[in-house]
Recover the amino acids of this structure.
């Protein structure tokens, strides 16, 4: 299998020297994100996030399954992250790459363990039927900051998705086709986002939203997930040179600021998308709350 | 599994009778396995781990390791004994949690071991978990430090690790929030906690893993108590290593 | 409506394309020639590796079948002998499928319905990646309706009520390189279908001069594939003209 091309010594030295002189190769400030672009598909639950050249598409879908015996009142929520050669030829199909394991663990911890999606609301009949919501994360283009982009796309897709409506009559369950009854939004308890800090020069330089080249040259990284209320869902600093405890704490404040920006962006884009769909105010008419 | 830890505020004593900043009993031995290049046995309360080190040895042939010709590669394998936990559950080989743990341990040591001295070679760490009762990752890191010292692999510093929890996860209960040092299994299930590893003396965070939701205001006390705990553990590890070294010099062990 | 195409939407792969028609959207990426693993190495030709990833869920037997069909089709046009002991990797990501993976279409139909989009996307990406091809290739979906009428590149409504579905691909010489059919039909109908499909396929990359269908204003016969590729070549050569 082809490996990811290592940057040359010259390229590395150039990047590091530039950082020493407080310059990033693409001219951004150290704490500046690349152009963030978020778009939604025609169907509910499809979101594509772009951070510069990095592009991640998330598709949320659901089906009705039998509830698991030990979690009677919960629905099922799974996140699947499979990296394919589309993103980079170094990703092999069918073999779990280290990057894939870490991406999936971080997303799992950020969204699933922190209870961002209320799984109890996915239950139809306790112990018998529930929704299985699955999110497929498709990384389409890899130019660094995979985790941040995936997390953004995933949260946006979950907020965009509508599950089919259902009605319970005794033991009978009727699931309505989206054409019969307007589908329903998932109930989200909070919206966590992930921000990755790459550090250089013994922790004195902290970069946000690294490109692939910057990622390959960095001494280590700290991944922080939190929501806009400042609740941290996950911190992971696995590798790299030790850093000062103080600078980790500083990262928290920067991360909070960025998370608020993400949060606003997602909400604005969702509103825009809703307006686009709601041609001629049909939505209000179709809403189940109206008297029939 | 909801468990009542609310009694803590009444007496400021934890489930096992410790105060907030007390470690559990730490016990460690080195050179426990004669066949391995380096080995250790480490106990942190009821968490018990055997660690063996093989290497540095020639890199196994095969495509994977070509990328790091100029440094030794660190491989970590974590084994959970079937009897180690409360329920006899078998973990799949491809379990992502185990794989994440292995990655954390391997990359933590990449920064302290002088791997550039052994190009084209591999250092393999085998961690056998005999009994789990909280602070698993921290115990693994401590055990690995001892085994690597025993194997005589040059390093810049020890890595010592511990866990810290907080008694209140939200911002509003300021006065009730107490950081708790070195968690056991029950506390770990109940409270938000983080694992912190430090090396190189004061205030240098080597790895930091937090997996449960906690407010950012809680973090500062947690990290500072954690670093304090790390330096306590560092002292204990140092004692074990020096005692072992003395024995070796006296010719009592091989 | 002719299919919507974006060439080179991705930065990492050697060649990429998105293909959108009335039914589905497919994103294709091509890498190659690459180093091949010892296990897959062929001494006299390039190994063609194809991955199809569904929009939702992980790949199963359905995707493996699509991969097998695509492998045979693409191998017939890629100049595999140019790059012995090498690898050409074609990854296809299905972005949108008719009625969520063909659930509402009846057994076997969803797979056939998505095939032409996969083939066309793969060919466009191969061209974009500069992989040597013997000639052009395009695919089209033909549905036979309840009353025996033929619909080329049908929409979802036609698909739901049709008798049979045929995914047909033709190479530049007019040779048939793929035919996957499902449903009930007889040999006579099939012959008609193939004729219509061949016309549609060839029209996709026919040069403007010799194409009479264009004059008739037949929308289906618009050389969409040629137009896209010509435009791409023009863009790529823009610097040359400006200097």
């Amino acid at each position: 299998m082809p490996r990811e091309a290592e940057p040359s010594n010259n390229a590395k030295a150039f990047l590091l020297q530039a950082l020493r002189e407080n310059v990033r190769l693409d001219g951004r400030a150290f704490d500046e994100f690349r152009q963030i672009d978020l778009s939604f598909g025609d169907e509910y639950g499809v979101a594509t996030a772009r951070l510069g050249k990095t592009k991640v598409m998330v598709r949320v879908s659901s089906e009705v399954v039998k509830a698991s015996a030990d979690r009677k009142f919960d629905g099922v929520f799974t996140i699947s992250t499979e990296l394919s050669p589309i993103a980079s030829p170094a990703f092999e199909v069918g073999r779990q790459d280290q990057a894939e394991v870490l991406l999936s663990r971080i997303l799992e911890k950020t969204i699933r363990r922190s209870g961002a999606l209320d799984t109890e609301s996915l239950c139809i009949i306790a112990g018998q039927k529930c929704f299985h919501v699955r999110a497929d994360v498709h990384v389409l283009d890899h130019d660094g900051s995979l985790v941040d982009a995936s997390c953004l796309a995933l949260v946006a897709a979950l907020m965009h998705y509508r599950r089919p409506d259902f009605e319970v009559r005794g033991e009978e369950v009727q699931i309505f086709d989206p054409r019969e009854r307007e589908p329903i939004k998932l109930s989200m308890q909070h919206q966590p986002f992930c921000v990755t800090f790459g550090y250089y020069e013994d922790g004195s330089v902290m970069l946000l939203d690294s490109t692939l080249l910057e990622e390959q040259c960095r001494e280590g990284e700290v991944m922080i997930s939190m929501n806009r209320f400042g609740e941290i869902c996950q911190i992971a600093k696995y590798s790299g040179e030790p850093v000062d405890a103080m600078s980790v704490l500083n990262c928290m404040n920067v991360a909070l600021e960025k998370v608020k920006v993400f949060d606003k962006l997602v909400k604005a884009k969702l509103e825009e998308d809703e307006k686009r769909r709601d041609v001629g105010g049909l939505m209000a008419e179709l809403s189940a709350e109206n008297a029939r | 599994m909801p468990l009542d830890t609310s009694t803590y505020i009444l007496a400021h004593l934890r489930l096992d009778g410790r105060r907030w900043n007390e470690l559990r009993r730490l016990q460690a031995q080195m050179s426990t396995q004669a066949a391995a290049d380096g080995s250790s046995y480490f106990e942190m309360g009821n968490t018990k781990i055997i660690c063996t080190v093989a290497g540095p040895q020639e890199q196994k042939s095969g495509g994977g390791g070509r990328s790091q010709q100029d440094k030794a590669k660190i491989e970590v394998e974590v084994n959970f004994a079937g009897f180690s936990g409360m329920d006899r559950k078998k973990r799949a080989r491809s379990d992502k949690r185990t794989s994440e743990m292995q990655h954390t341990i391997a990359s933590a040591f990449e920064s302290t071991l002088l791997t550039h001295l052994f190009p084209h070679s591999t250092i393999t760490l085998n961690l056998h978990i005999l009994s789990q009762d909280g602070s698993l990752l921290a115990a693994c890191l401590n055990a690995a430090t001892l085994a690597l010292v025993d194997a005589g692999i040059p390093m810049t510093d020890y890595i010592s690790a511990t866990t810290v929890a907080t008694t209140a996860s939200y911002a509003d209960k300021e006065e009730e929030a107490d950081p708790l040092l070195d968690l056991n299994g029950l506390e770990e299930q109940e409270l938000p906690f983080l694992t912190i590893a430090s090396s190189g003396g004061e205030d240098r965070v080597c790895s930091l893993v937090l997996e449960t939701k906690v407010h950012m205001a809680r973090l500062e006390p947690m990290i500072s108590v954690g670093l304090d705990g790390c330096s306590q553990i560092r002292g204990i590890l140092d004692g074990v290593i020096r005692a072992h070294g003395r024995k070796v010099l006296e010719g009592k062990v091989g | 409506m002719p299919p919507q195409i974006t060439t080179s939407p991705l930065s990492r792969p050697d060649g990429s394309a998105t293909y959108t028609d009335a039914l589905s959207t497919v994103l294709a990426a091509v890498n190659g020639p690459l180093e091949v693993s010892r296990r897959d190495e062929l001494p006299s030709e390039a190994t063609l590796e194809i991955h199809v990833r569904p929009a939702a869920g992980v790949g199963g037997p359905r995707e493996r079948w699509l991969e097998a069909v695509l492998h045979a089709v693409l191998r017939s046009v890629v100049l595999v002998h140019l790059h012995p002991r090498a690898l050409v990797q074609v990854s296809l990501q299905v972005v949108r499928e008719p009625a969520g993976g063909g659930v509402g279409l009846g057994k076997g139909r969803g797979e056939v319905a998505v095939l032409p989009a996969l083939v066309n996307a793969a060919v466009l990406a191969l061209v974009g990646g500069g992989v040597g091809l013997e000639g052009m290739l395009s695919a089209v979906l033909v549905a036979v309706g309840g009353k025996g009428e033929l619909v080329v590149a049908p929409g979802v409504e036609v698909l739901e009520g049709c008798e049979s579905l045929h995914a047909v691909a033709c190479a530049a010489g007019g040779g048939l390189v793929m035919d996957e059919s499902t449903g009930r039909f007889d040999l006579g109908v099939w012959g008609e279908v193939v004729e219509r499909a061949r016309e549609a396929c060839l029209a996709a990359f026919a040069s403007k001069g010799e194409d009479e269908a264009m004059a008739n204003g037949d929308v289906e016969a618009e050389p969409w594939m040629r137009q896209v590729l010509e435009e791409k070549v023009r863009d790529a050569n823009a610097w040359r003209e400006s200097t």
Remarks:
- Residues 4-242 of chain C form a domain with the Ribosomal Protein S5; domain 2 fold (CATH 3.30.230.70).
- The two ends of chain C are 37 Å apart (CA to CA).
- Chain C has one domain: 4-242.
- Chain C touches chain A through 23 residues (CB under 8 Å).
